[in-house]
Amino acid sequence: MRVAFFSAKSYDRKFFTERLKQFRHELIFLEPHLSQDTCKLAFGFEVVCVFVHDRLDREVLKRVAEHGTRLVALRCAGFNNVDLNAAKDFNLTVVRVPAYSPYGVAEHAVALILALNRKIYRAYNRVRDGNFSLDGLLGFEIYGKTVGILGTGKIGRAMVSIMKGFGCRVLVYDLVQNPDCAALGADYVEKETLFEQSDIISLHLPLAKETHYLIDEKALARMKDQVMLINTSRGGLIDSRCLIEGLKNGKIGYLGLDVYEEEESLFFEDKTGEVIQDDIFARLLTFPNVLITGHQAFFTNVALENIAHTTLANISAFEENRLSPMDLVKVEESAR
Ligand code: NAD
User: What is the CATH number of the domain that holds 81?
Assistant: First the structure.
């Protein structure tokens, strides 16, 4: 099939071109994000292949469907950027890569925890400057601490298993209990209990109406002073405005973000030398106890291989009418 491949990066070209040898599709790599301004580029393509910052709103979906698109192939797990009701209305099939490397994402969350706790990012610069003072680098032992994990799907489960390995007490919250997590020794609790008792809180829920701003001023107020908050899921789970006050008054002792609610205009691009226009993001960068990475938790060789393989296999399955209902991203999922 002919595929308009939006938001293409050098690593996408490398992994998809390598994998393409096993498939018969034609991929046209396009650097822009898919949006109302760029959707013309997709006209005439049966498939659009997109990533997390492509915007598939009703207007975009309507226009591409009118010009021959039948399949939206997401090369990511999250699908909060697609209007699934509109996709249904315009008879567009939507597929995604539900699991490409849950351990990779969980390991990145743990990397943020360890780096924040032992201030590795500060120690690295200090030692290179010839400053071997330990002042300001005091950490705590993760062993024995209470870790709260919101969302016990594929990534949350991996997170439970790693944090159990550290000797932590693990509290979990999800609408649906995952028996693996209970078997690993995690305790399902109400989210309020998790907020109140956890020393470290890590988010692994999808972004949907129900989870938007799950962490707001009220949720923060319930948390322990000096809590460590980690978000490798989606920026919109946290109301970023309350983070600044939380950091200033010591409610948040450590903040590790791989995602940010307004990341679209920043992440995945080299902005060296540019003035950051987002005042909240710029302020967050000034705190010594904040560590931000630019949506790189997924970024491992295993994940990129799996993303390329599953995306191309999804397109083949659609072409050959072999997609099972389990493979489709359905409207009901966005309503969870
Ligand atoms: P998953 O679907 O396996 O698990 C999500 C869990 O959240 C499920 O157990 C589900 O029951 C639960 N859930 C959904 N809505 C809920 C609600 N309203 N209240 C409580 N629980 C709810 O997903 P996953 O593979 O573990 O991924 C989780 C998220 O991580 C993705 O949605 C994506 O946004 C994010 N992600 C980020 C990166 C990155 O690079 N930073 C990479 C992959 C995924």
Answer: 3.40.50.720
**Cβ(263) – ligand 1 distance below 6 Å:** no
**33 CA to centre of ligand 1 in angstroms:** 23
10-19 b/e (C-beta count within 10 Å ≥ 16 → b):
eebeebbeeb
In a domain, 336, yes or no: no
How far is the centre of ligand 1, averaged over its atoms, from the C-alpha of 309 (Å)?
A: 21
User: pTM of this prediction?
Assistant: 0.93
Task: Provide the number of structural domains found in the chain.
Answer: 2
The H-assigned helical ranges of the chain are 10-20, 58-66, 84-89, 102-118, 120-128, 154-165, 179-183, 191-197, 217-222, 241-248, 279-284, 301-319, 331-334
* Residue of 105, 160, 181 to mutate, ligand 1, most atoms within 8 A of C-beta: 105
Give pLDDT tens digits for 129-171.
999 999 999 999 999 999 999 999 999 999 999 999 999 999 9
Residue 228 resides in a domain: yes
Structure confidence by residue, pLDDT tens digits, 18-47? 999 999 999 999 999 999 999 999 999 999
